[in-house]
């Protein structure tokens, strides 16, 4: 938590969450289309949470590449626990994530369309932290 604050001044951030794609080789037929990600190549998705030092704290994955961030999150144990109010980290603490995640969860996401300089500044800090 201290590292995020030292780095960008963000308080109460205990980890960064995102997903990553691992390329896979599959037969070229319709049966495997769900593994094609938005860039068109086939992959398996992993959701990872890292702490302020870049250490992996939580990894969940194995889903087809077409699955969106929030869907991976909802299927993961940590996602289910947070959605159901079963805290897995200290009170008032947040993860930092991209717009693929919901701001209704304990995940700090950037503003979708900042309307002022303050919002743009926040998004700049947010993106440099991710």
UniProtKB/TrEMBL annotation:
InterPro entries in alphabetical order: HARBI1_dom
An example Gene Ontology molecular-function term: metal ion binding
Origin superkingdom: Eukaryota
One matching Pfam family: DDE_Tnp_4
Alphabetic keyword roster: Metal-binding
All residue ranges annotated as the DDE Tnp4 domain in the record: 17-129
Cofactor names: a divalent metal cation
Name listed for the protein in its UniProt record: DDE Tnp4 domain-containing protein
Organism in which the protein naturally occurs: Austropuccinia psidii MF-1
Lineage, top ranks: Eukaryota, Fungi, Dikarya, Basidiomycota, Pucciniomycotina
């Amino acid at each position: 938590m201290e590292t995020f604050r030292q780095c960008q001044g963000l308080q109460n951030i205990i980890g960064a969450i995102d997903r990553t794609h691992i390329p896979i080789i599959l037969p070229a037929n319709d049966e495997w289309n769900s593994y094609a990600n938005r860039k068109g190549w086939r992959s398996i998705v992993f959701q990872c949470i890292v702490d302020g030092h870049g250490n992996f704290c939580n990894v969940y994955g194995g889903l087809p590449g077409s699955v969106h961030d929030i869907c991976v999150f909802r299927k993961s144990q940590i996602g289910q626990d947070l959605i159901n109010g079963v805290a897995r980290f200290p009170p008032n603490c947040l993860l930092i994530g991209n717009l693929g995640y919901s701001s209704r969860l304990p995940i700090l996401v950037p503003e979708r369309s900042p309307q002022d300089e303050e919002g743009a500044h926040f998004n700049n800090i947010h993106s440099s932290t991710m």
